[in-house]
Amino acid sequence: MSDIGLVDAALMEVLANDAALTALCPGGVYWDIRPPGEPAPTAYIVVSHFDYSAEPGLGGTTLYETILYWVRATVLGSSRTTARLANARIYALLQGTLLDLTAAGYVAMSCTRVDHRPYVEVDPVNKSLWQHHGSQYEVISYPID
């Protein structure tokens, strides 16, 4: 049985299990937001859905599904370097990769970066800077069943 939520998990697993990315962003990989807690990590990855579409086939089947993910490195500090390097590592891990989606009941067709957006955010509490370097990745897959 196909489970689109497990496609999300597969993408996050690739990021969470990479030693080079963990060295740059040791705070972890999170879905949508970093959970509250102290001490707050100063470098982490956030993965979110940006868009989703399905191509219908005959008889109520789905030919393929497209998920657009927003994947960003978030790093505390005035230097953009660590966030930029983390984003480059994310690119190396995802661009052109055929994710193993068998546990999700899918076969990967492609994973492609389609946009890139760096930005800086000022923390409203302590006025420190958060560097964000992120990209959108389009994952296309088809359900096995």
Strand arrangement in the largest pleated sheet: 1-2-3-5-4
What sort of overall outline do the alpha carbons produce when their principal axes are compared? Answer: elongated
Describe the main β-sheet briefly. 5 strands, mixed
Q: How many structural domains does the protein architecture include?
A: 1
Radius of gyration: 16 Å
Strand content: 35-45%
Average pLDDT number: 93
Briefly note the structural class of the backbone: alpha+beta
CATH architecture: 2-Layer Sandwich
Q: Count the E strands.
A: 5
Query: Number of DSSP helices?
Result: 3
Write the element-wise H/E pattern from the N-terminal end onward: HHEEEHEE
The name of the CATH topology is STM4215-like
Share in helix: 10-25%
> Which CATH first-tier class would you pick?
Alpha Beta
User: Which stretches of 5+ consecutive residues score pLDDT under 50?
Assistant: none
From the N-terminal CA to the C-terminal CA, the straight-line distance is 6 Å
SSE layout and pairing:
Elements: H1 4-16, H2 19-24, E1 29-31, E2 43-56, E3 62-76, H3 81-94, E4 106-122, E5 129-143
Parallel strand pairs: 1-2
Antiparallel strand pairs: 2-3, 3-5, 4-5
Brief synopsis:
The chain has 145 residues and is α+β, with helices and mostly antiparallel strands. 23% of the residues lie in helices and 44% in strands. The chain starts with a helix and ends with a strand.
Written overview of the protein:
The model has no long low-confidence stretch (mean pLDDT 93). The protein has 3 helices and 5 strands. The chain is elongated. The chain has one domain (4-143): STM4215-like, CATH 3.30.2000. The protein has 145 residues and is α+β, with helices and mostly antiparallel strands. The protein is 23% helix and 44% strand. It has helices at 4-16, 19-24, 81-94; strands spanning 29-31, 43-56, 62-76, 106-122, 129-143.
